[in-house]
Amino acid sequence: MNPFSSGTRLRDMIRAIRACKTAAEERAVVRKECALIRAAVSDNDNGYRHRNLAKLMFIHMLGYPTHFGQMECLKLIAAPGFPEKRIGYLGLMLLLDERQEVLMLVTNSLKQDLNHANQYIVGLALCALGNICSAEMARDLAPEVERLLHFRDPNIRKKAALCSIRIVKKVPDLAENFVNPVVSLLKEKHHGVLLTGIQLCTELCNLSEEALEYFRKKCTEGLVKVLKDVVNSSYAPEYDISGIADPFLHIRLLRLLRVLGHGDADASDSMNDILAQVATKTESNKNAGNAILYECVETIMSIEDVSGLRVLAINILGRFLSNRDNNIRYVALNMLMKAVSIDDQAVQRHRATILECVKDSDASIRKRALELVYLLMNETNVKALAKELIDYLQVSDQDFKGDLTAKICSIVEKLSPDKIWYIDQMLKVLSEAGNHVKDEVWHALIVVITNASNLHGYTVRSLYKAIQKSADQATLVRVAVWCIGEYGDMLINNIGMLDLEDPITVTENDAVDVVELAIKLHTSDLTTRAMCLIALLKLSSRFPSCSQRIKNIVTQSKGSLLLELQQRSIEFDSIIEKHQNIRSALVERMPVLDEATFSGRKTGSILAPAVSTINSASGVAISAAAPLVDFIDIGADEPAAASPTSSGGNFLQDLLDVGTTPIPSQSGKTEAQKSGTDVLLDLLSIGPSPPQNSSSAPDLLSLSQDNKTSVSPLDSLSLATVPAVQASSTAMMDLLDGFGPSPPPTNNGPAYPPIVAFESSSLRLTFNFSKQPGSPQETHIEADFTNKSSDVYTNFIFQAAVPKFLQLHLEPASSNTLPGNANGAITQKLRVTNSQHGKKSIVMRIRISYKLNNKDVLEEGQISNFPRDL
Amino acid sequence: MIHFVLLISRQGKVRLTKWYSPYSQKERSKVIRELSGTILSRGPKLCNFVEWRGFKVVYKRYASLYFCMCINQEDNELEVLEIIHHYVEILDRYFGSVCELDLIFNFHKAYYILDEVLIAGELQESSKKTVARLVATQDSLVEAAKEEANSISNIIAQATK
């Protein structure tokens, strides 16, 4: 016998661990014990195996690794005696889960134990199987379990029934084997067997439509009778819980009846009486009774319409809702959510109570109630309810504000009766909880504001008033700054007064104050500051008298450590100082933003709307700034010029991003490029204003392909304007007299032209590239496969290999069938991380296999025409 | 269906864990950390349900121990409270007014009892008496085997004296 393991008993070990004062001490004790157990394991010590396993289980519960004990479980299970098996199975269930391969080794022992003469050993095996079996084991052992459903001892039958639930969940195909045994289980008198049989039956009904039909026909009557018997049974001490005989059985019966009655009028009809009896007769002063009522209400709601019962059910919920017990109120709210779709009016009656629950001190109840209020909102009550919620926003918990704000915003957006109301409510939300408002929400607000031309003045004045009070709410500041930049003149002159407004006096300096404060506030982030800069540029033109002051503020950002701000402020400074003649044209008011485009984008990525709003927001002014950027880049050192694109998070760049997100209002520029002379002036909208018709993405793309060499080195923002830059570089130089003539910039940027990566007589593969800001090493590639032949390719598989300095991640392809005649394409996304970014460019070897008329075809190739600096 | 059962002491120590849905070891400790954080910090008068990752956790405090069970959204929370109480009463009957120490030193017994109450996350037996009887019978089987082993080793010891 091992001299080490004879040491401590389980009890002593637990005591020693409990006596530890610090975590370090505990670790030391556990380490020592584990070492001893490991030694015993490697010595194959029989005598103390069960004690060691018990110790391991305790250690496992404390969160230490115990994988070395897994094989010990298997050995104990294989032992002949009951005590060893008992602890062995316990260890198995505790230390392993269904995903561990070791588990497969136990299948054989389980099979033997399921056939054991000792029924308690059979019970152990069933329990273990029910708790952790995997799909393979379920398949292997299902026949044994099925047989045990007819075992003489009811305690084995009930275990086998629950075990069957696990089996059919893992392998739904096996469900039909269990249908017949279940019918006999449902006729049992033993509560345990009946209980488990009902659960198995419910599971089978959920899994298979056939089984549901079968049970509905064969068992509904019987089950209704069983429920009747249970409800009317006399006092049975064994099953009694607070005066109710076996509430568990009640609840499970009700649940099964719900499944059977759902969508079937006859079955629903047959359970009508008993449901009414349960709903009216069950005592509701104890939890057990309420649990039954709750289940009963849910059943009434789900089965086919029996209107009298529904009223009963809604009344029960109403009673629940006014209960003082939080648990009952919680479940009432939960159930009312389901009732809304059935009987909206009945739920609306409880609106006041529900609204109170939103203000409850209990987070769970608040959350439920808020969701319910959200469902209850409609055009008629939105004003009142939104007012209540916004009022509550002022006093609610910090951690609840996020949820609440999101819901209010969504309601206001969805149900607002008119624009002024929408703007008012949003301003209130922004003032109260601006820090919790998501980007999409305030972007949407700006879109609405630009569209409400009669409210511009009103909005900017309200925002001005609001920001005086709550300057610490980031999103409020952003919206206010944006509006002041756009409509600053309306603020000063009280233009577009509504009847309900009181005139306010704001001087030009006051308006600039707001923006200055915002840009200087230490909590303002890059986005806010960038927006402030643009607003300042706009104000410099709107308020000529403040021009000098604004120039000073802009100048202060010249030293900003954030390169974006620094760069922009230098540019804007130069615009204010040297180019007064074009400034007013540069900073014209934004064209109205298209709501449809915006809402279309909103469903896409989160970043996209940000880009689109801002970029169109800065509109004309920025399209002029774009070439400027590039020229300033040239002036600076090479590394510095490269860094804005690689530094990541360059919001301003996105902000100025004109080319990559073509929207109708920008189309003028594409047109302009083609027109030749004085292109830049066109761009700056000094010349005849460019036509506002739409030009689509293909235009831009084809353009960029033509100019491949010159486009790729440029920033994405100049995609569209590159030709313009080249065509009229003399004009540019005039404009930027400070900077000498230079070749086009060569820094890398986030946009690359697509390449044809591979082309054979039968197949073409194109790569589209994109980069995430912030990770220059990572390139996202979208591979498009086009079939040039007329036949369909099936089993299409694309494989790729890259050298060691690259990391390749392939996402699943959109399909594995490629129709002929270029009639549809497969797309697949790839992600390449270049650890030698800037030094080596990407190369890739590819292999494409597919079946053509059932013959395997293999195509291979190497791609080395990737853009240089990916 | 019950996805897992947790017993956590007021100090956040785990006293029993039973997983009916597959969670890896890493996930298990994450779940325990998250839940003990939320549940232990809740006030006494609040409701016994916590919404968590799209599931609901029903918990109930008995003396220094929190009994927690994680269920699906559509399950009956009130009934799960009743199941918790059912289990606690059986423990109480078995240990004779159970306390946390009983469950620490006899944690395996607590597991054996739980295995007679729940299998595959579903309720197995609604009669406390039956559960108690089944556990007692199995305990006596173990005792009998132990005695037998002792008497055999005694006989061997005497024979080899």
TrEMBL record, chain B:
Localisation per UniProt entry: Cytoplasmic vesicle, Clathrin-coated vesicle membrane; Golgi apparatus
First-listed, main subcellular location of the protein, grouped into a coarse class: membrane
This protein's UniProt keywords: Cytoplasmic vesicle, Golgi apparatus, Membrane, Protein transport, Transport
A GO BP annotation: vesicle-mediated transport
InterPro entries the UniProt entry points to: AP1_sigma, AP_complex_ssu, AP_mu_sigma_su, Clathrin_sm-chain_CS, Longin-like_dom_sf
UniProt topology in membrane: Peripheral membrane protein
Pfam families given in the database record: Clat_adaptor_s (PF01217)
Gene Ontology CC: AP-1 adaptor complex; cytosol
Domain AP complex mu/sigma subunit: 1-140
MF terms in GO: clathrin adaptor activity
Ubl conjugation in keyword set: no
Keyword Protein transport assigned: yes
Subunit structure: Adaptor protein complex 1 (AP-1) is a heterotetramer composed of two large adaptins (gamma-type subunit and beta-type subunit), a medium adaptin (mu-type subunit) and a small adaptin (sigma-type subunit).
Similarity-based family: Belongs to the adaptor complexes small subunit family.
Free-text function comment from the UniProt entry: Subunit of clathrin-associated adaptor protein complex 1 that plays a role in protein sorting at the trans-Golgi network and early endosomes (TGN/EE). The AP complexes mediate the recruitment of clathrin to membranes and the recognition of sorting signals within the cytosolic tails of transmembrane cargo molecules.
Record-given protein name: AP complex subunit sigma
